[in-house]
Amino acid sequence: METALLEVKNLIREERSDGILTLSFDSTNTHNPFSKEMRDAVIASLQKAKGDTSLRAVILTGGEGRSFCVGGDFNETITFTTPEQVENWIDSVVLLYLSCLELDVPTIAAVDKYAIGIGFQLALTCDWRIGTEQCSFIMPELKNGIACTLGSFMLSHLLGKAQMQKIVFGCQEIPAAEAYHMNLLHEITTSENLLARAAEEAKRLSNFPEIPWSGSKKMINRSFINGLNEILIESKLVHVDSFMSQSGVKFFKKILNKDF
Predict the structure, then answer these.
(1) Cβ contacts of 63 within 8 Å, gap of 6 or more
(2) Structure pTM?
(3) Which of these, 60, 124, 156, 179, could form a disulfide with 185 (CB 3.0-4.6 Å)?
(4) Is the pLDDT of residue 8 over 70?
(5) 86 lies in a domain?
């Protein structure tokens, strides 16, 4: 069995075993907030994977005993003072999602602890989502003064408008059992078994004949990808208005526990 630690970069770990690439988010914060550097690292890894013809599947995880991702890094977003900064941020976030959606091979999200905001949305771009009994999903943007254009589109696309409204307008934590019932998760396992189960599922999906799989996945994801591209300009405008109004600053400060 081929097993190799391919690369350890700042903020992300890449490990490959039998053609299955595991990307572990490796922020110094165990809840894995996504800064620009983290997004850039994940995007680079996903885009490199897209060109790797020997690759059979990709697993995204926050790492053993760590959160999948709790969203954007507020140390970054609290500094936004110009529309250009906000627009570049949204461009980067959408590119992150597209980089995962455009992979031909199966993608598995292995979710422990929290998947919030960007983390929640990144998990939605994967073909299969496995969560632990302790994991939970939250889309809390609106109550905290942050627009939720991308999340609302993605949830509507995958689950329908009514479920999207429950999640986006409710802004409530969704525990693993409820997430499974809503089809946010395809299965639930223990924290100890999460990565092993993700590897098993990656192997199962990667054993499907390549051409039918990749062709079907491209067709399935086409409307998702087109939709994200179509709402990009409007989404940036909404986020610019939100950030310029400083509606989320109080929330950012509370989370960061800083005295400005």
Answers:
(1) 13, 24, 25, 26, 32
(2) 0.93
(3) 179
(4) no
(5) yes
